[in-house]
Amino acid sequence: MNQAATERFEASMRKTEFRSSESGFTLAELMIALTVTLVMASLASILMAGSFNIRARENQKTEALADTQRGLNLMTREISNAGYGLTDNGIVAADSGLSSIRVRANLNAAAGETTSSTTTDRDEDVKYLLYTDSDNSYIVRIDVNSAAQEMVLANRVDALKLRYYADKVTYTSSNCDITNVRDSYGNPVGEVAQKSGAKYIVLSICVTLPAISTPGSPGYQPPSQVQLVSDVALRNSDLFNF
Fold it and tell me: In total, how many domains does the chain have?
């Protein structure tokens, strides 16, 4: 083979090698691309898990609070009617305390409706309490005059506390209770000595949302606690302040 032929052959080989390198990726390039893909997939999986856990917590919170708020609204409405058509405030002292209250109201005492002068009809004698079993806690309503018919108003409740005062108060809510209680003049005030003297009641309900997933895992949601508070002025009591 002469010199010219040799040069043409070598040039042809160089072109072939160049075209071969253009037609694909090296092993190193493939490994890098695969690694990047795996990292991105892992990050996407973590973000998705976190998103699902956050959504689960929000759904859990919405359901629990809606349930508890409905129960609190019913309690507030019925307790505010205590003493209607009666000569006292309607609170049954012997059956009321920190986590329960029983109230009476002569709801059908209005002129023209009936001649009833007692609280022996349906919804005229009701009790609210926090009931706890091995798995859960519930706010329960008992209609004393309807064969003690029970109705569960809310579950997943951790605390129910009732505070009884002689007049309207202001306070700070924390730790499933109220503190720094003061009267309309800003003076510290305590609860009434006798439930018969109560005219203003503060209801406090706490709901604890359990943790979702485990600590350190993607999207872990720690336990959290929400407190709902309602003030009840007994309509049939002569409050100094409203």
Answer: 1
